[in-house]
From TrEMBL:
CDD domains: HTH_ARSR
UniProt-listed Gene3D superfamilies: Winged helix-like DNA-binding domain superfamily/Winged helix DNA-binding domain (1.10.10.10)
Pfam family, one: HTH_20
SUPFAM superfamilies per UniProt: Winged helix' DNA-binding domain (SSF46785)
Gene Ontology molecular function terms on file: DNA-binding transcription factor activity
Annotated HTH arsR-type domain residues: 1-90
Protein name: Transcriptional repressor SdpR
InterPro entries per record: ArsR-like_HTH, HTH_ArsR_DNA-bd_dom, WH-like_DNA-bd_sf, WH_DNA-bd_sf
Superkingdom field: Bacteria
Length: 106
């Protein structure tokens, strides 16, 4: 996995929005995705291309349509390599401390 490419793809808020949209409903066309974005189809296509280059999105042709699907494997690999080792006990303690300091009772 090219971790740098994945992190660069995730660094952009529009690309994260595209991933969120695909997570909500996988297998969307460019038109369906653009309904939830404030940008041209050409710009959305460029962002999808970068997500595909990072292997975060795959696309499949269905007739004249191209359906886009999220690929969770690179995200899982990033999680395993960069997030997992920092979580659980330490993060739970920090989260509880933050809530207590902010007076959040939830």
């Amino acid at each position: 996995m090219d971790t740098d490419t994945v992190f660069k793809a995730l660094a952009d808020p529009t690309r994260r929005k595209l991933l969120d949209l695909l997570c909500e409903r996988n297998g969307q066309t460019l038109g369906q995705l653009c309904e939830n974005l404030d940008m041209t189809r050409q710009s959305a296509t460029q962002h999808l291309g970068l997500l595909e280059k990072a292997n975060l999105v795959t696309s499949v042709r269905r007739g004249r349509e191209r359906l886009h699907f999220i690929n969770p494997v690179p995200l899982y690999e990033v999680y395993e390599r960069w997030v997992r080792k920092f979580e659980h006990q330490r993060l739970n303690l920090l989260h509880d401390l933050k809530r207590e300091l902010e007076g959040d009772s939830k």
